[in-house]
Design goal:
about 280 residues, Rossmann fold, Pantoate--beta-alanine Ligase, Chain: A,domain 2, 11 helices
């Protein structure tokens, strides 16, 4: 596996592969890799000649009181995992390499970025859109692979790609879960042993709400309220629990068929997000 820490070295290697007519897949990450990340790489390897992974903890998507400084950074372990996965290239830039002195450009996907997580994390999705656009510009992949655990993030990126006419195909991969049902996340390591026992109940409440919809419950706002009350009773501090249309993430009603339920909640000092998407059975 090649490791590139500079933009120039990255571009030189990618130019050689393009000259050889290799198809390129890209998996952007913030490191602290787990089985969910490795699944993205597996999916990329199915359809591309070369797979590029980036590890960059992006400062512009963290708020001033969020966990940028303590976000897990496990470079040696990540490199070992990527080598074992037969990754072709790791792009491992510094912050100064990505954000040069005096930089002042941000990209914002207006409406989507204000919904759900965006209402609780101002500026977060602008930071996401900016770094993804930068990385797409640097790598210029044929396809890029993202996990569907961050459903709203992928919706923002899809809109970015459409609106800016970017020549990249996006692939979403189903959430990888622990045997308990807890969605795999780098932030799960913040959980205490006791919290780790409670955390899977976030997904349980999502599944219970889906079952109620499939059984014919028509009052989505009531279901949301019930779910919030349930989460609080379990020890979570929920930010939101919203039943949405899957295509634009606006709040859904009973006439909508393709749905996604999005939720975010704090458990102790850890903020967890999860979702479940489905076509209603009525």
């Amino acid at each position: 596996m090649q490791i590139c820490r500079s933009i120039d070295s990255l571009r030189d290697q990618l130019a050689d592969w393009r000259q050889a007519s290799k198809t390129l897949a890209f998996v952007p990450t913030m490191g602290n890799l787990h089985a969910g990340h490795l699944k993205l790489i597996e999916e990329a390897q199915k359809t591309a000649d070369k797979v590029i992974v980036s590890i960059f903890v992006n400062p512009t998507q963290f708020g001033p009181t969020e966990d940028f400084s303590r976000y897990p950074r496990t470079e040696a372990d990540d490199i070992a995992a990527l080598k074992a996965q037969n990754t072709d290239l790791l792009f491992l830039p510094s912050t100064d390499e990505i954000y040069p002195a005096g930089e002042q450009t941000r990209i914002t996907v207006d409406r989507l970025s204000a919904l759900h997580c965006g209402a609780f994390r101002p500026g977060h999705f602008s930071g996401v859109a900016t770094i993804v656009c930068k990385l797409f510009n640097l790598v210029q992949p044929d396809l890029a692979v993202f996990g569907l655990k961050d459903y709203q993030q992928l919706a923002v990126i899809r809109t970015l790609v459409r609106d800016l006419n970017l020549a990249v195909t996006l692939v979403g991969v189903d959430t990888v879960r622990e045997t308990s049902g807890l969605a795999m996340s780098s932030r799960n390591r913040y959980l205490t042993p006791e919290e780790h026992q409670i955390a899977p109940k976030l997904y349980d409440v999502l599944c219970q709400t889906r079952c109620a919809i499939d059984a014919g419950e028509k009052n989505f706002r009531s279901l949301e309220t019930q779910a919030l009350l349930k989460l609080r009773s379990l020890g979570f501090i929920p930010d939101y629990f919203n039943i949405c249309r899957s295509h634009d993430l606006e709040l859904a009603d009973f006439s909508d068929k393709n749905l996604v339920i999005l939720t975010a909640a704090k458990l102790g000092n850890t903020r967890l997000i999860d979702n479940i998407y489905f076509a209603s059975s009525w």
